[in-house]
Amino acid sequence: MRLERWMARQRLRRGLQTALASPFRAEFDVVDDFGPELSQSSANAVEGCPEVSGCASRQRTKSSFSVQFINSGNFSDEQLASFKEKLPILLDARRGLLAQEAEDDEEILQEHFELHIRRSNILEDSWEALQEAAYLELLAPKLRIEYAGEQAQDQGGVAQDWFCGVGHALAADAGSDESASILTMGASSRMLIPRPVRKEADDSAEGRYRDLFVCGRFLALATLHGGRPLPMPLSPFVCKYLVGAPVELSDMKLLDSDFYRQRVEPLLSPDGLEEVEAALGEPLTFLSVPTELRPAEELEPGGACRKVTKENLHRYLVLLCEAFLCSELREELQCLVQGFWDVLPLEALRAAHLEASDLAILLTGSCGVDVGEWRRYSDQQADAGLVISWFWEIVEEMTEDLRRQLLRFATGSARLPPGGFAALKPRFGVAISSAGSEEHLPHAHTCINQIVLHRYSSKEKLRCKLSKVQPRNGTCQDEGDTNQQKGGQSVALFTSHRGRGESGFNCMLKCTKAAEQVEGTEGVWEAICGDDTGVCTISFRNKEVADVCKVGASIRMQNTSVRMVKGYIRVVVDKWAAFKPADEALEFEAKTANDVSGVEYELVES
Fold it and tell me: Which UniProt keywords apply (predicted)?
């Protein structure tokens, strides 16, 4: 037995070494949404993508799985039936590969894979068992779980309890930056991805990579045993990586709308490259987008000196998007993927035509929004009268898709964090506005997970207004729009002194109030800037950039985002934006009398 355990650990070590020697690179679907002109060069781009693991060239026949999964969180009966048909094929394909892999001709597939677990140490004991398991044990047709000190005959229920228990342990505190979990929660999707391993911690880094490899084995085990629903919603990108499916441009738009809008979309227009370079004031080169964890890096050898041209623009976009997705997690993703393939090789997955949506059904199931739980873990205004009662009655009467749509409008995501509404931070809130009238639509503050209603005269009036609340382009209607409304008047920001780019891409502003740190925060500064049409509060996340804002300073601003914070407009200078001194002093005076950040705005019907 000791020899078997030693051999199993050696197999795992070899698999881990293979993973770390070949960092992950995502496959891209190059015929996606890059536009007609760029799509014509797809074949050339495929041949020239050695840095990307594969570039698929195929025509899409249905909407992106990622968009469907994150926006609805549910699957159709047809998809569930399709998965059930594929599972037996997957099992047959996997067992058909055994003869090629057997290290000993006399090895035979075992009937049971037995695990002895202490419930109080469920994750540690499970990981040790999965590290020491021979691969023929992992492929056993039946699981037998025994909890220390508990008497129960496992007819499937104990195994299901084990899958759920390990899933809960993996997802616990995934949303916290201080968590020791090997998984973390994606900011935009509230779904799980590998947590970056701190490379400076050499002693613990190998253990973290090993845990991710074992996590891949655990996910494969859940797949192999009929799709055990796990309380750990994996990111659709991870699901795609596990089955070897390509990423689509629509996935990128969903993952980070700011990245797509500021770094990709401008380059898709016929004269996009020229406009972007004019706004930047310098040529575009093959460099990645810098992030909080990683500075800009060459997308290919010599990329810092290689200019982007119309001929190589498609290649640049593929490499840029791939680096944005994977550059911070290449080793982590490869360990997770290789652990999964160690149990269910890609050859078997493809033989069964298993898709990312099938894997999502296998691992996370199809769970609805529990209205009772939603209401129980919500903060509600005490003096709201009948309006809030009507609101919950209407939510109860909604279809599952409409509930998801409402949830996304109010919180920014159609999916809940692990732990459901109880784990949603801040708590969901329903408030009643003292301003406006019953003709106003509800609006949302996604930063605090709150929907704001008005004092509607009837339940049907409220139902009508809620039916018009639609999330748009991955964000809510109260965010990312420079035309927020109050009293029927639209707000237009900084329209007088725009540089080349036609869409406010390059604004010239003057500072009227120097940047100051926002009270109660550690990394947010605010200043007031504007032109001769009005001024607005500018919010910074970087002290060095904020220091550019001195009273009277002339500023050139690019790639910023407009946000609503509790009903007040802010222009946000985030990691995608540029905020620099202007090349020369500006002659106009900012119109401080028109401060669009000084009034609370809300959406009304147009």
Answer: Transferase, Ubl conjugation pathway
For residues 601 and 436, give the distance between their C-alpha atoms in angstroms, rounded to a whole number: 10
CA atoms in the 13 A half-sphere facing the CB of 134: 20
Q: Within its chain, how far is the Cα of 75 from the centroid?
A: 19
Give me the phi and psi of 429, to 5 degrees please. Answer: -135, 145
CATH number of the structural domain spanning residue 407: 3.30.2410.10
What SS3 state is found at 299? coil
Asked whether residue 80 falls in the same domain as residue 119, the answer is yes
The pTM of the whole model exceeds 0.70: no
Share of the chain above pLDDT 90, in %: 29
CATH assignment at residue 518: 2.40.50.140
Within 13 Å, how many C-alpha atoms sit on residue 248's CB side?
A: 19
423 located within any domain: yes
Confidence of residue 450 (pLDDT cuts 50, 70, 90): confident
589 half-sphere exposure, CB direction, 13 A CA radius: 3
Boundary of a domain, candidates 315, 338, 364: 364
pLDDT one-digit tens code per residue, 349-405: 999 998 888 887 766 654 578 899 999 999 988 777 899 999 999 999 998 888 988
> Given 326, 335, 367, 447, which residue is catalytic?
447
Provide the residue type at 71 as one letter. Answer: N
Residues 392 and 496 in one domain: no
Closest CA to 103 of 14, 176, 22: 14
**Phi then psi for 469, rounded to 5 degrees?**
-85, 105
CB 601 within 8 A of CB 491: yes
Residues 458, 559, single domain; the answer is no
- Partnered with residue 485 across adjacent β-strands are 490
Task: Report yes or no on 77 lying in a domain.
Answer: yes
Contact 351, 88 (CB under 8 A): no
Domain identity same for 113 and 204: yes
Domain that holds residue 180: 2-248+329-364
Please say if 447 is a catalytic residue: yes
Same domain, residue pair 35 and 159? yes
Question: pLDDT-based confidence at 503, cuts 50/70/90?
Answer: very low
Sheet holding 450-453: strands in order across? Answer: 378-380, 428-432, 450-453, 443-445
